[in-house]
Amino acid sequence: MRIARVVGNVVSTVKDAGFVGYKLMIISYIDEPQKRDIAFDAADAGVGDIVLVVADGGASNIALGDSEIIADVTICGVVDNYTLGKTIYDCH
Amino acid sequence: MITGEVAGTVVCTVKSSGLSGIPLLVVRLIESGKKAGLVVAADATRQAGLGDFVFLITSKEASAILRKPYVPADCAIVGFIDRYNEEIQEDWP
Questions:
Q1: DSSP secondary structure letters along A18-43
Q2: What range defines the domain where residue A56 resides?
């Protein structure tokens, strides 16, 4: 899993049938700040939140509670704080 | 999933049999406005055309979403983007 930050969202009407009903959030990873990815939202994250992201199909099905959906990157948690070395980063 | 713009098509007669019958499109990857690479993607929606702003799924989910057995694809177009709202630009705190 990776820590990422939600920097925006995406609206799409014409998409795969299984994606209907799920929010699509744009995320930027902690170790690759320039890279952008689109993730399904299984933890009601808002823009600006620091989140926990999983990047596997099976885990995404579990996080979303939906066995038919074919998803790869999914937000499965909102981080309160994390420590890196000796510094504590508070995410609220 | 990653985002990109359809930039071209690929015609390939001699190929793995699993890929037959699936449109192959050249997609210019775009990450927050900047060009970020070029991939060939299988078109799962079968509606994508030149200049469409699409999002793509990668790794084994790409072959799963084509809903066809034994497709050796690792990148597939799965939807069209109507609005791409990126509200936070600055770097990590």
A1: GGTT--EEEEEESS-TT--EEEEESS
A2: 2-90
For the segment B66-85, what is each residue's pLDDT rounded down to a tens digit? 999 999 999 999 999 999 99
Give ipTM to 2 decimals: 0.85
All residues at 6 or more sequence positions from B22 whose CB lies less than 8 Å from its CB, including other chains: B42, B43, B66, B68, B71, B73
In one-letter notation, the amino acid at residue A86 is: K
Q: What is the pLDDT of residues B28-71, one digit of tens each?
A: 999 878 888 999 999 999 999 999 999 999 999 999 999 999 99
Q: Which of residues 11-70 of B touch A (CB under 8 A)?
A: 31-32, 44-45, 47, 55, 57-61, 64-65
Quick check: B59 and A16 CB within 8 A?
no
Per-residue DSSP letter, A56: -
Q: What is the pTM of this model?
A: 0.90
User: For chain A, what is the domain count?
Assistant: 1
Note the maximum CA span of chain A. 46
User: Which pair of structure tokens corresponds to residue B4?
Assistant: 């990109």
Q: Are A73 and B58 in contact (CB under 8 A)?
A: no
Say how many residues make up chain B.
Answer: 93
Task: Report the C-alpha gap between A35 and A53 in whole angstroms.
Answer: 14
Amino acid at B13: T
Q: Domain containing A73 — which CATH number?
A: 2.40.50.220
